[in-house]
Design brief:
The chain has a domain of about 130 residues: Pnp Oxidase, Chain A. It is about 10% helix and about 35% strand. The protein has three helices and 13 strands.
Length: about 210
């Protein structure tokens, strides 16, 4: 019988990670480059995962590993580099936001994928309505605010499960990435439910951290 996933309490930190190891006597994995080639043929939407660091300043990075896990309760997953600054901040904060980028936000996707010292200086952000987490209000057509539910270290990445506690969505055309290049969703704009529309974007600097 599957065990229920323990959700982290309303405290400001994430639950400790679970370490996953491969069996030493198991089958040999395919070469890394072959695996990367396979995954490059699977286009995906582009998101920027954001959180707050211990100093109250925002942290974030570009992510294409977003997936829906379950609808009841509403839980999504992202995979982040274990040694990365964003994951370390996320673990301390216990919460994060997933900003789904629209087709005009390619520059932001590229900026947050590079080792840029202050990525947030190159975009506009403000506190998200529910949690105060960094919301890329001019680059994202949808944003999910999440509480960390579970962490699992797998290889050089950590699987992060997040309980969705808030949503903001406006009409927009998603940005896609696959085969090492960006593209726009061919179906055009995806309409947003009116009740999910957030406050009008305003230019914001460093906000008070919710963590």
């Amino acid at each position: 019988m599957a065990s229920r996933l323990p959700l982290s309490p309303a405290a400001r930190t994430a639950p400790p990670p679970v370490r996953w190891e491969t069996a030493e006597d198991g089958p040999a994995p395919v070469p890394v480059n072959d695996f990367r080639s396979l995954m490059s043929t699977f286009p995906a939407g582009v998101a920027v995962v954001t959180t707050h660091g211990p100093d109250g300043r925002p942290r974030g990075l570009t992510c294409t590993s977003l997936a829906s896990v379950t609808a009841e309760p509403p839980i999504l997953s992202v995979c982040l580099t274990t040694r990365g600054e964003t994951l370390q901040a996320l673990r301390g904060c216990g919460a994060f936001a997933v900003n789904l980028l629209h087709e005009r936000a390619r520059h932001t996707a590229e900026t947050f994928a590079k080792p840029v010292p202050d990525r947030f200086a190159h975009t506009v952000w403000q506190p998200a309505p529910e949690t105060g987490l960094p919301w890329l209000s001019e680059d994202a057509f949808a944003t999910a605010e999440c509480q960390v539910a579970h962490l699992a270290e797998i290889g050089d990445h950590t699987l992060v499960l997040g309980l969705v506690t808030g949503l903001v969505q406006v009409t927009g055309t998603p940005l896609l990435y696959g085969a090492h290049r960006f593209a726009s969703w061919p179906g055009g704009d995806i309409p947003a439910p009116q009740h999910l529309a957030g406050p009008a974007p305003v230019r914001a600097g460093v906000a008070e951290s919710p963590c």
